[in-house]
Design goal:
By secondary structure, the chain is an all-alpha fold. The chain has 7 helices and no strands. Helix 6 packs antiparallel against helix 7. The relative contact order is 0.14.
């Protein structure tokens, strides 16, 4: 049964927008550490507002993850109604695929491609030129951002000198750059795929009348 993803997409767009703003603030803080690691370290140790901002950021990110997974499952379920034979995995994988170690670096992307194709007016048509560019760009930036974030986290834990702190911040800043771009592209991807499904469902209802 088809289910409308529009409301979830709207909420997700807002959350992603807030995430992008918070990521930009995070990027600015990393740039400060790179420019003056001593002053930044001393300030962060005494400014309680920074800790509060971190908590808010984690909560918003958690909410975004939850809403994204619910939306992703819904659009995957809709695509299975339209073109089940094109879906390489059951809709449940739109949830579970994110929690598979290592596999979560490519499984959700494969699902997204299948859902995209199933949501087109003609699911069985060949991919158009650069049709998947938005999807692939979003996923590439997201994966690179995650990898760089994990790398910088490890470097921060090992940092015992200002030079090491600056190096960790540099890698973290690079990670933030990719994540910010991924966030913007995610908004465009969510809106585009949701629009495709809305248009297809509306067209089917009109044809049925």
């Amino acid at each position: 049964m088809l289910r409308n993803p529009n409301g979830l997409a709207t909420a997700l767009t807002v959350l992603l927008g807030v995430d992008v703003l918070l990521f930009l603030i995070g990027a600015a803080s990393e740039a400060w550490i790179v420019a003056d690691p001593l002053a930044a370290a001393e300030s962060y140790a005494t400014v309680e507002a920074f800790d509060a901002l971190m908590v808010v950021g984690y909560l918003v990110y958690l909410a975004t993850v939850v809403v994204f997974i619910i939306w992703f499952h819904r659009v995957a379920s809709n695509a299975s109604v339209w073109a089940a034979d094109l879906q390489g995995r059951k809709p449940g994988w739109a949830i579970g695929g994110w929690f598979v170690p290592i596999g979560n670096l490519w499984i959700p992307r494969q699902i997204a491609v299948d859902v995209w194709r199933g949501s087109r007016q003609d699911p069985y048509a060949a991919d158009g030129a650069r049709e998947l560019t938005l999807l692939n760009s979003w996923w590439t930036c997201f994966v690179l951002g995650v990898i760089l974030d994990r790398l910088s986290t490890g470097l921060y834990r090992q940092a015992e000198t200002l030079d090491a702190l600056s190096t960790a911040a540099t890698w973290s800043l690079a990670g933030y750059a990719f994540i910010v771009v991924a966030g913007v592209l995610a908004i465009l991807f969510v809106r585009r795929l949701t629009s495709m499904q809305h248009t297809k469902a509306t067209g089917m209802l009109s044809a049925a009348k």
